[in-house]
Structure formats: structure tokens, C-alpha cells
Amino acid sequence: MKRNRSLDKVIRPAVLLLCLMPLFVLVWNATTGNLSANPIDDITDTTGRWTLRLVMITLAVTPLRRITGWNGVIRVRRMLGLFTFFYGTLHFATYIWLDQFFGFEEIAKDVLKRPFITAGFLAFALMVPLAITSTRGWIKRLGGKRWQFLHRLVYISATGGVLHYLWLVKADTLFPLIYGCVLSFLLGHRLWTFLKPRLSSYREPYSAWRHLWLKESTGLDARAR
Amino acid sequence: MVIPWRGFPLRDLINRLEPTSHAKYVEFTTLNDPGQMPGVRRRVLDWPYLEGLRLDEAMHPLTMLAVGLYGKELPNQNGAPLRLVVPWKYGFKSIKSIVKIRFVEKQPVTSWSASAPREYGFYANVNPQVDHPRWSQARERRIGEFRKRKTLMFNGYADQVASLYSGMDLRKYF
Questions:
Q1: Which residue from A132, B27, B55, B77 could staple onto B102, CB 3.0 to 4.6 Å apart?
Q2: Cβ-based contacts of A109 with chain B (< 8 Å)
Q3: Are residues B115 and A37, on separate chains, in Cβ contact within 8 Å?
Q4: What is the pTM of this model?
Q5: Do A116 and B134 touch (CB under 8 A)?
Q6: Which residue, among A107, A126, A102, has the nearest Cα to A117 in the 3D structure?
Q7: CB neighbours of residue A45 within 10 Å
Q8: What is the predicted pLDDT for the residue at A8?
């Protein structure tokens, strides 16, 4: 397919700017005193929410491509993935620095004892190797197949992120469940495209036997028509 | 949180109402008006919001009904026109926008303890030694402060209120 370079020139800077918007808005609100009485919570919430949103958007690239046939969208996937990692890093840094103030003993206890922190920590830790190996050089070094297999870790990371959110809310589980539904669709779509050809090929031996049986019992060859 | 509330001791009101000897607990109910409070349109909790205190807790001089804060009238979001303030308990005990107060014989089933009995008890005294099942309650950040500080037993009012709970297992009655 011919690459539409002029479209590329517009889309990538546009996505870059869009992905930076949440950070600009947060910095703007922080410097103009528009955060709440608990600004550290606001920073944690905002960066966490955008990490989740961006991982969903990143995971939507492949289904979108399969459904619409628009292959060009793949060219923003790495940028979206790296922005997910960027907001995840800000979220993690807020926790380590602003929330816990580098109290590594407390942090270790949290990670081991609090399921929502365990899930969040895992979700973040799994993104690190993906960010490192996101370059062209690493794709070559690992080989396409192995690289792709490694990058399936994002499925576990995103699941960890949703659980992290679900387990930290007090009573209102609406938003975590919405993210859970979106993720289920995005992963379900992949499972479906993986299983579909395998399921239809399963019918092959069965239908071959059926034809043979029909031919033997009726003397008619349904295939010979 | 350290908030300069304006109000009066709850016990002044209780003394005027002269409850009978059957009054063992005080039960409070919040206004349930979806028109003014869009949040109650969704049944996150079993509205109306309900809280309660043991009568001796309600009669304690530190327990107050607030009508203002920071020298001003209570804004709606802080529980106008009348709210409870129980400074040695977690915030959810300090019920807002009270429309009903009842004296009852049995311990009221409070909203949060009905919603998540494993996580929220009737007493909800500030206690850094007893964690919420999902997170630590050992440290807190005061409004306006950057670093967290250690949470104190009974939120720093142990000398005034610890005697209310003498002999009680505070792990069991959290």
C-alpha cells in the first residue's frame, strides 16, 4: 500500500500534541492554583487516569486497523505506547516522591501487602521492558516474532492497571468497570481473530467425513456438483 | 484534617431534648434530594446517608454540630446547613446536611458499615494501629502540608476520649 506521507505529517504531530494536553492542563492547574485542597491526590488521580486511557487507546490500534482496514493508524502506535509509559512514570513518581517521600520501607510493605498497589506496581513494571524495546533497533535485535510475543505483556499490564483502579475505589465501581468492559472488548477482539481461523479449519476434517458418509449412504456426491 | 469549625456542642441540643433512659444511641440522617445532590441519583450507597453515635459519644464535649468553618457559613459541599463533627473519628462519621436526629435503643446500621462491613465499622475511631483492609491508616497528610505525618491515636484526642472505650477490643470494634 502506498504510504500517504502528507497524512503522516499531520497525524503524528497532532497525536503528539493531544497526548501532551493532559500534562499541560495539569501543570496549568497546578501553577494557577486550580487543584483541590489535596493537590497531590489530584496529580496522582490525573496521571493514573491518563495512563489507563492511553493504554486503552494504544490497545485499540490493532482492532481499529482490522475493523476499518485503515493501516496508517499503526504509525502512531509506538507514540501512544510511549505516552502510556510516560504518564505511568509520572503516576509512579508521584507515588514514590510526593506521596511516600522515598520511604522505601513503607513502599516495599505497600507493594507486598496492598493488592491494589501490587497490581499497579506490576502494571508499571511490565511497561518498562516494552518502553526499552520500543525502538527499531530492538525490533531487529529480537526479531519480529519474539518482539511481538514480548509486547503481548501489555495485555497483563493493562489488566493490572484496571484491577489497580478497581481495588482502590471505596464503593463507586462504575468507572473501573467501564475500563474493564473496554479492555475486555479490546482483548476479546484479539482472541476472536486468533480463534476464528482455527475454529473454521476444525470443521474441515468433520465435513470431509460427513461427505464421505453421505456419498456412501446415498450414492450422491455432494461435492461433485 | 485540622479545620476551624464553628458550631455548638451536640450535648447542648441533647440536653434540651431530654431523651428517655431508652436512648442508647443517636441516629442521624442526611437530606436525600437528587435535585440538589446529583450524586445520590446513583445508588453507590443505600441512600439516605445514615450515621450514628453511642449516647456517651454524642454527649462528649468534643462532639459538635457545626454551622460554619474558617469563620464563614457552611458551604453546601461541606454539609450545610448543619453537620456533625466528631474530631476523633474518621471523616465519614461526621455526617453532613442533617435532616433527622433520632434517639434509639439499638445500634444504628450506618451507611458505610452496611455497604462494606469488613472495611467500615460502627465506631470508626482514628486508629493508626488498625489498617483499613486495603490500605494503611498509619500516616496522613494534613491540608496545606506537603509531607505526611504519623496519625495519632484517636486523632490526637486520646486523653479526652480513650476512657469511652476502656476495656474494648479496638481491633474488633473498629
A1: B27
A2: 136
A3: no
A4: 0.86
A5: yes
A6: A107
A7: 14
A8: 74
